[in-house]
Structures are given as C-alpha cells and as structure tokens.
C-alpha cells in the first residue's frame, strides 16, 4: 500500500469527510495540520493546491476531497 498523508485545517468540513472516508476504507494515513506546519503548507501550494484537504498518496497530490482520484490511486472501489 502506498503511503498516505492527509493535510488538513482546523474546522474544515471536507477535511473531516476525507478523514472519515479513509477510515471507512481502512486506509492508514498520517494527518498533517497545515495551520501548524508551514513547510507542509508550502509543499501543498507548490503543487497548486490552494485549499484543504490535500491528500498525498505515494507521490501523487490530490487537491480537495475527490473520492474517484483517491480510489484510483489506492486501487480500491
């Protein structure tokens, strides 16, 4: 399984949705709080992601909560 990181912001509805989705699919992931980690924020911006959540699967950046892209990258349905 590819490593998964979920970049979030406090009080972000879609971040909570993404986290719940990954949990229901039994995907292990690391959470990174963009409000506390400025380097991670710069990385997200460098990959043209302007909001949260951002999901990093392997070396693929997914901007926003996009189930289809997440499923494709993880090879799940």
Automatic annotation (TrEMBL):
Pfam families: Glutaredoxin. Residues 4-60 form the Glutaredoxin domain. This is NrdH-redoxin. It comes from Arcobacter caeni.
């Amino acid at each position: 399984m590819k490593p998964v990181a979920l970049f979030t912001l406090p009080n972000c509805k879609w971040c909570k949705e993404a986290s719940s989705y990954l949990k229901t699919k039994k995907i292990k992931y690391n959470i990174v709080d963009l409000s506390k980690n400025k380097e991670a924020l710069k990385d997200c911006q460098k990959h043209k992601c302007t909001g949260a959540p951002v999901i990093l699967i392997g070396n693929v950046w997914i901007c926003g909560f996009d189930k289809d892209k997440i499923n494709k990258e993880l090879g799940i349905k």
